[in-house]
Amino acid sequence: xxxxxxxxxLALAGLFLSTYLYLYKLGFIGTLACGSGGCETVQLSPxxxxxxxxxxxxxVGGYAVLLLLALLALHSRFSGASWPVQWLAGLSGIAVxxxxxxxxxxxxxxxxxxxxxxxxxxxxxxxxxxxLLELRRTRTxxx
Amino acid sequence: MASTPxxxxxxxxxxxxxxxxxxxxxxxxxxxxxxxxxxxxxxxxAADTAGFRGYILGADSAKLEVSEWADFQCxxxxxxxxxxxxxxxxxxxxxxxxxxxxxxxxLDQPHHQTRLAAHSAACAxxxxxxxxxxxxxxxxxxxxxxxxxxxxxxxxxxxxxGLDLAKYDACMRSAKYAGRIQxxxxxxMKLGVNSTPTFLIGGRxxxxxxxxxxxxxLVRSQLAKPGA
Lengths: 143, 228
Prior knowledge:
The complex is a heterodimer. Chain A is mostly helical. Chain A has a single domain (2-140), classed as VKOR domain (de novo design (two linked rop proteins), Up-down Bundle). Chain A has helices at residues 2-25, 38-43, 55-74, 83-110, 115-140; strands at 49-50, 53-54. Chain B is of the alpha+beta class. Chain B is built from ten helices and five strands. A five-stranded mixed β-sheet of chain B has the order 1-3-2-4-5. Chain B is elongated, with a radius of gyration of 24 Å. Classes of the chains: A mainly alpha, B alpha+beta.
C-alpha cells in the first residue's frame, strides 16, 4: 500500500501545482513565484496551449484523474485488484511522454525553463516509478 | 504490506487535511492584494518630478524638439509607434535634426492598465533601458492590454529588454513613479492635450497618429523658419 499512498500524495502535489499555474493563466494570480522570469515566458508562450487547451488545465485534469484512481486503488474493496494500478501505469506513462515533449519545447523552442514545469516533471516521473513498482508487486504477489 | 482499514482511513484523513491546506493556500494567493498597483490621481510632490520632463531620445544639439503625449494602452499610439516612429527615428532623430520627448498621458478610462505599463517603462528607465521596454510594451500591446495577467506579461517584457528582474520587481512594487506619471498627465492637460497621441511641434499641438511624412513635413517647415 505504501506505493499506492505515494502515488496519491504525488498526484495531489501535481494537482495543486497545475491548479496554481492554471489560476495564473486565468489571471487570478498577479505574478508567479518564479525568480528567473522564465515561468512567465513559458506560460505566456504559444506553446502553453495544446490542441486548443491550456497545458495547465490538462495538468489539472490529468492529476485529478490520477489522484482519483490512486484513492480508489487504496480502498479496501480494490486493494487486491490490479486494474486500478494498470490504469495508473498507462495514464502516468502517457503523462511522462507528454512531459518529455513539453520539456523539449521549453529547451529548444521557447528557450526558457519554468521551475514549476520542472517540478511537475519530477512529480510525474516519481509517480510513474512508484506505479511501476506497485504493478510489479501486484504481479509477483503469490496467488 | 496490507494496510488495516483504520490505516487507510487515517491516510484518507491525511489527504483530506492536505486538500484543505492546499485549497486554503490557493485561496489566499487568489484573494491577496496584487503585488503591483499603480495609483491614479496621486498628489504630485516636487520630488516626484525633480526636473524630470519626459523621456528623451536624440541629441541635445538638435535644432527642434518634438513632444509626444501618449498612452501605452491606446491603439492609435501603438499604431504610430509600430508603423511610423521607426522612420521618424531613423530620418529625423538619428540624423540630429530632432530631439524626441515622450510624455505619459494615461487615459484611465477605458485604459485600466495604462499606468501599469507606464510604470513598467519608468522602472526600465531606472536601469537605462527605457526605450527597449517602451518598444516592447507597444509591440506587445495586444497581449497585455485588457489581460488580467498584464503584470506578469510586462515583467516578461522587462526580462526580454534585459532588465535585472529583482530590481524591476522592487521598483514596480514601490509604485515610486506614480507621481511622475500623474505630473506628466497634469502638464499635458494644462497644455491642452485631450487625446492621444498628441504631438507638440513648434509650439503647436497636433492631435492624432500623424504619419511619418506629415511629421517630416512639419519639422521641415519649422526648421525652414528664420532663426530656426
